[in-house]
Design brief:
mainly alpha, three-stranded antiparallel β-sheet
Length: 143
């Protein structure tokens, strides 16, 4: 089974209906989309490390003035800095991935119930009669 989907959900009506995004400059909207792609590709799937140099590199190195203008729009809108200051987080993306994960799990459960109706819901971690280690000094051939 794949651990991660090759794509992420993008909702055009939600995107175009977000007043914060629609108030952004065109280059800030582009930055937002590039950062969403980077966040979706990350292990966490909804955040990126707050290293501004790395963020600016992802955004094709805007000038200092452009970066300050773009950054204010991003942080003032869809992106939030984590409490510890280590991450830029996009919570809408996080909610979308959580919903995808829950839907996938429900589909898996439905398929298992349909195609494997007699399979146990939970498999035990061990058996009541698990073999124990052979004591030292046991004669050979006793096993």
């Amino acid at each position: 089974m794949k651990e991660r989907a090759p794509a992420f959900q993008f909702y055009p009506r939600q995107f175009s209906g977000d007043d914060d995004i629609m108030a952004m400059d065109l280059d800030a909207v582009g930055a937002h989309i590039l950062l969403m792609c980077a966040a979706a590709a990350s292990l966490e799937r909804y955040r990126i490390h707050s290293d501004e140099r790395a963020i600016r590199t992802r955004l094709r190195n805007p000038s200092e003035a452009d970066w300050q203008r773009i950054k204010v729009q991003l942080i003032g809108g869809a992106w939030k800095i984590s409490e510890d200051g280590q991450w830029w987080e996009q919570h809408g993306l996080g909610r979308t991935f959580q919903k995808q994960r829950e839907f996938s799990e429900q589909q898996r459960e439905r398929a298992n119930a349909k195609w494997n109706p007699n399979s146990p819901k939970l498999m035990p971690d061990r058996c009541r009669t698990d073999a124990t280690e052979v004591p030292e000094g046991s004669p050979e051939g006793t096993i």
